[in-house]
Amino acid sequence: MLIVEIQLLKYTAKVNTIKFPKIYLLSFVIFCTALLLTFTSPFANTINEAKNHYQKALKLSQKKLWDQAVTEFRKAAELTPENSLIQANLGVALSHNEMHKDALLSFEKALRLGYDSPGLRYNRGVSFARVNLLDEAVQELEKALSMDRRMVKAEYDLGVIYNLQGKRRKAMEKVKTLFKRNNKLSKKLLDQIGSAYKVVSVDDGGSLKGRITLSGPVPRARAFHMIHAPNIEFCSRISDGKGHRLLFDFTVSKNRGLKDTVIHLMNVEKGKPFSPKMQTFHIDRCRADRYVIGAKNGENIMVENTDPIQHEIATYEVRNIYSNQTSNRPVPPKSSQVRSVFVRNDADEYIIKCNLHPFLQTHAYLVQNPYYTVSDSEGNFSIENIPPGTYEVIAWHPYIQRQKQTITISKKGETSINFDFNGKEEKRKLYHDDIKGYRFNTWYDSNKKFYGGERIDDPVEELQAFCDEEHLCSNP
After folding, report:
1. What is the reported pTM?
2. What confidence tens digit (pLDDT) does each residue in 66-95 have?
3. Which domains does the chain have, with CATH numbers?
4. Rounded distance, CA 413 to CA 74, Å?
């Protein structure tokens, strides 16, 4: 509960500031209007004194001097006990002083006097939560949202409380609601809820081994004309020597083993932990170190740019045939930054790519548990320490229809399974594959740059061999 209390207090502090229109310190203009109507009464002096205390309280609230603000609000309330606005704001100040029981009494009195608003309901719900009256807190926050659906902080706090109550499904609904409205709060809530997968010790686990193969034609490599990309002098250090960078979506060994396929066991509810090590998207000479990875929703990935040029790294979530960009930021030369794999719950793929150099990309399959791996250069794979049981196994490649099989893992036993894809079923979209002719003259084995002058950058060059349907693709 301690973590949640801190979160709720943080957002209470933001919403209860009179700087903003959504603040829930109430309008001084309304108060003054009420005062003007009373100046001709016998109690004008009392009203003026209450007004002065109220003004002081507002100024102290702006400075977050809540102890002094409480004193001034109370003086104003004593002079005008029937003023609902003063009672409401006294409750706000008391809540900031962690006097939540007193705050609830003030909020209740404001309601009895006829004042009601989304902000009052929100603050009242927060105070209920802080004294651990969670059902009452839920009722108030839901009331606030019924009055104003734009209150994203109320959506967030409701998710926090649902999670405390063990209502994971309802908490996840709030993550979904917040995803487009406030992505940061949505991610923050997801981090608190955590995964449905449970970590337990596995003493009698079995293993799964097998091989991924590709029959039929080997799909051609994608060819990117480098004349379209910036930093041509540097990026062309890897090319076919004729002005093209080749991207091997399908890498097949001589004995037809298919590399870069994710194998994932579905419906494993508990078992070994995910690796605590942060995954890395490592960039070297406009090339990612891994073409395919497995990733869980909510995890962070370190983007490392070792090149002397800037990359424009964007990320995308893929849902069925739809894709949405989730981030796009430059990564300066020789620098690193963290990106979050945060997508909607119906997405199954996450793409990391450079918008300046589109041949620089990695595809991630979104996994629900740590029982996954990626096939090696010979198509082989193995997964260890699997709890005994019957599972569905997915074999996923970014550009071919996925396959499924069902297996049974016995105690301390070894199970084998193989998958065979057919190259005729590739499902890539249209792309440049014209590799005829020169886009610019190659300068391999030359000391001159493309634009003239001596070459002083990375001296390593790598020629990529193009393959077609008659030859197997092998990424150097």
Report:
1. 0.79
2. 999 999 999 999 999 999 999 999 999 999
3. 2-193 (1.25.40.10), 206-226+247-425 (2.60.40.420)
4. 73
